[in-house]
Write a structure and sequence with these properties.
Elements (H helix, E strand, L loop, with lengths): L1 H22 L4 H18 L1 H8 L7 E2 L2 E7 L4 E4 L21 H8 L5 E9 L6 E11 L2 E8 L2
Antiparallel strand pairs: 1-2, 2-3, 2-6, 4-5, 5-6
Helix pairs in contact: 2-3
């Protein structure tokens, strides 16, 4: 009887910790909504205020492992809170963990579309691990607003 009580306690603890871990992750739909929110903020407040807010690692556009990043149609970054060293740089040569040119793919796809979904492997800023990421990007003016959810 005591073993079954202990086993039940261990299983319950595992289930609680597993669901807690899942709630610590953003979803692809939440990433898409964060992009829409960022574009709305940009439209209302202008480029300078929007990019300052998007680059604030403790601001409204960073939610758990979700964050918005913005580059122009040439691949030059204007916002990415977890990696401020990207700002002002052409990142079209950046590859994911498997060698995929992720920014170049975004730039190329958004030449003919207003939005896109993309999957690649990237470092999660919360866990520090390379994880599978599903990213939504949307074009506004000459900027590409993107956010992605880690799905591993």
């Amino acid at each position: 009887m005591r073993i079954s009580t202990l086993l039940a306690s261990v299983v319950a603890s595992f289930l609680v910790s597993s669901s807690f871990a899942a709630s610590d992750r953003g979803t692809p739909e939440e990433a898409k909504n964060l992009v829409k929110k960022a574009i709305g903020f940009y439209k209302t407040n202008g480029k300078d205020k929007a990019f300052a807010a998007l680059n604030d690692s403790k601001g409204a556009f960073v939610d758990r492992d979700l964050y918005v990043f913005v580059h122009d149609d040439k691949g030059v970054y204007f916002a990415i809170a977890p990696k401020p060293n990207f700002i002002g740089k052409d990142m079209t040569g950046v590859k994911d963990a498997n060698g995929k040119l992720i920014v170049k793919e975004q730039v190329d796809a958004l030449k003919t579309a207003n939005n896109m979904w993309q999957e690649y492997d990237w470092q999660n800023p919360v866990t520090g691990k390379i994880e599978h990421k599903k990213t939504y990007c949307e074009k506004h003016e000459n900027f590409h607003f993107c956010s992605g959810a880690y799905t591993d």
